[in-house]
Amino acid sequence: MIRLALLLLLLAGGAQAQPASFQVTDFATGLERPWGAAFLPDGRLLVTERPGRLRLVGREGQVSPPLAGVPEVEARGQGGLLDIALAPDFADTRELYLCHSAVVQGGALTRLVRARLAPDGTALEGATPILDATPAQEQGRNHFGCRIAFGRDGALFLSTGDRYVTKMRAQRLDDLAGKVLRLARNGAPLPDNPFASRTDARAEIFSYGHRNAQGLAFNPWTGSLWAAEFGARGGDEINLLRPGRNYGWPVVTHGVDYDGSRIGEGVSRPDMEDPIHVWVPSVSPSGIAFYTGAAFPAWRGSLFVAALNPPGLVRLTTEGDRVTGEERLPGIRTRIRQTVQGPDGLLYLLTDESRGRILRLAPG
């Protein structure tokens, strides 16, 4: 157990955060590349493993055998079994959603699946694909996106990556790669989506011009949707998503390509949305979560960002829909894929490791 006392530095914007302390423990072990997680109403935790397994973690951290009925995935490159989210009425319907990479005729793509958790918690029932982010792409197995979030109105939001090889897919409105989609629970586009009336665009699209958004979270105070998005070398972003807006990739970016060459036209353009927060150099942001609990009063209102490279956990202070400061929590030096708040008000971190763990942050 690591016990840390945090004396937080002066944050951007001139606000001094209250001192806080926390302790980090291994809550669960024996996982392989855990990627997504969702707490059940009874306090247990469903966790995906990228190689294609789904497990149920008990309230004391005990890990179940793999659940039956999980759809087949292609665990190659950055693909595999990725995010999981419970339906808003899960307590009544036991309905949940999975996102994963799949191989179809023509190549690989991001797929959304609807299923039910069996009453005994040992299997999924009726797992059915409800959306494929077409067209499929034969080349490459990177940038699948694959985060799921539900809005206050019950709409399902899904991020898709640009698939890496052909960057301009993110700008095409007849292509579901490099987008955030807004869907009904059967995978159909909602009729009030921004491009629903256009014949030259996919009706599922909510926003576009995204590289690889692996973080989606609704701000519980404002109702707005935030996304964390990987840049290339530098240029990682937090974006405030608005319907129909273009977020620029690969036309504008604060990053450069991996060979050091320039990407696009510059860092901004009047007809494209600027990020509300940028990292140069990168932190490789994955899952995000707003903190609303009582266990850490000084952190209430913060956005926690899972960081892969350099590894760790980033805390962003916020006011409304603005980022006001940034802190990297000391003592956490493991690649973190996702962060979730538990019903106990504690933070749970999924480590991106072959011997994967779930870390728990508690007051200390």
TrEMBL record:
It comes from the Bacteria. Keywords: Signal. Residues 31-360 form the Glucose/Sorbosone dehydrogenase domain. Residues 1-17 form the signal peptide. This is PQQ-dependent sugar dehydrogenase. It comes from Roseicella aerolata. The lineage of its organism: Bacteria, Pseudomonadati, Pseudomonadota, Alphaproteobacteria, Acetobacterales.
